[in-house]
Amino acid sequence: MNGAATVWRAMAGNPLRFVFSSWPWRSLAYVVTGPVAAAVWLVLVEVLLAGGVLLTPLVIGLGLLAGVPLSAVGFAAVERRRLRLMDRRPAPSPHRDPPRPGLRPWMSCRLREAATWREFGYALLAVALAAVDVVVPFVLVVGSTVAGSSPWLIAKGDQIQFGPEATVDQQRETWPLMLGGLLGLVLTLYALAALAGARAALARTLLVRPVEEELVEVRASRARMADAFEAERRRIERDLHDGAQQRLTGLIMTLGLARLDRSTELIDKAREEARAALEELRDLVRGIHPSILTDRGLAAAVEALAERSPVPVEVDVALPERPPEGIESAAYFVVAEALANVAKHSRARHARIVIRPGLSIEVHDDGRGGARVADGTGLQGLADRVAVHDGTVRLSSPPGGPTILRVEIPCES
């Protein structure tokens, strides 16, 4: 599934594509559901406050009062889920695990966290902004819809009032108004998207754990690079000698026996050996440079990798033209190695690949996190391959996830 990761990227793209995409509807849903969530949380807070004040002499009353800021934890969790409407990037919780199981350790841990009080402040701000989220969409949508449908309203005998004196009641007066209304509908879509994007940015700033990145060393030594290429050469020689060469030798012997015995069974066996040898040669060549990359480019090759991945992968590749051959090959193997790591180590349920001109590659997964260069995940080899093109590799993989691998390879495409 292709598409922009955030509403801001969608708005910066093709206007026609944006207007007819799902983003305006997602923006409207995000803005409209915000006041609903805020209202539900406000009712819960009022109940906790009332119960806490009435039961103050009892221990349970203090617990209810403590639940007022703690209720923002649940509200923030809902907001992080709603954030997916506007921002497809991972939104991990900023909270740490309590030291012990149970309600009291959980409450004590949460009340001591700065993240809880940030969430409480965000909840109060969401309540204050709820009126804006209701009034702005209502005025924009209703105003532009009425103006756009003015010819039909006047034809039915209605009047359109603009202020105390301006009235439209003639059919000829409605056509400029209708054109302005249609233009206003388009501008309304962008205004709603901008409002929703601003609210989503506020939510990500206050409610989402900051991403810490590890810069992977890519200035590989010449000795390590030389060793890597020598090991690859030996692997190719070994695969040829132990695989395809042995099968071709067996094929020659089988054909010789078939010629002497005129045996159809031996001819069929020779055909199977030839097919097996061809498959081994194809697999070997695919490991060096896949044919789909040569024939159809990076986007198609990455799509093929995603289709073969045991983890569902969302692909978003936007390249106006093909990168140089060496960089394109390096980018392909970066994605291949990253997806192999996701499948082997992450326990992820979903992954996402984003490739942009520049050349910028991001691989996200929602797995358990905790990936490190020294953990045998192949990241050092990946960094060595990128180093040839003066690229950089950044890894963000906090315990609990998500993992984000960012690779930048200087490229003019």
UniProtKB/TrEMBL annotation:
The reply to whether Oxidoreductase figures as a keyword in the UniProt entry is no
Q: Which SUPFAM superfamilies match?
A: ATPase domain of HSP90 chaperone/DNA topoisomerase II/histidine kinase
User: Could you tell me which residue ranges the Putative sensor domain spans?
Assistant: 30-207
Residues annotated as transmembrane: 27-49, 55-78, 120-143, 177-202
Q: Which reaction does it catalyse?
A: ATP + protein L-histidine = ADP + protein N-phospho-L-histidine
Positions of the Signal transduction histidine kinase subgroup 3 dimerisation and phosphoacceptor domain: 232-291
In the UniProt record, which is one GO cellular component term? membrane
Family matches, as InterPro entries: HATPase_C_sf, Put_sensor_dom, Sensor_HK_TwoCompSys, Sig_transdc_His_kin_sub3_dim/P
Annotated coiled-coil positions are: 260-287
Q: Write the Enzyme Commission number(s) for this entry.
A: 2.7.13.3
Alphabetized UniProt keyword annotations: ATP-binding, Coiled coil, Kinase, Membrane, Nucleotide-binding, Phosphoprotein, Transferase, Transmembrane, Transmembrane helix, Two-component regulatory system
Cross-referenced CDD domains: HATPase_UhpB-NarQ-NarX-like
Note one Pfam family from the annotation.
HisKA_3
MF annotations from Gene Ontology: ATP binding; phosphorelay sensor kinase activity; protein dimerization activity
Entry-linked PANTHER family = NITRATE/NITRITE SENSOR PROTEIN NARX-RELATED, NITRATE_NITRITE SENSOR PROTEIN NARQ
Protein name, as recorded: histidine kinase
Q: Which organism is it from?
A: Actinomadura namibiensis
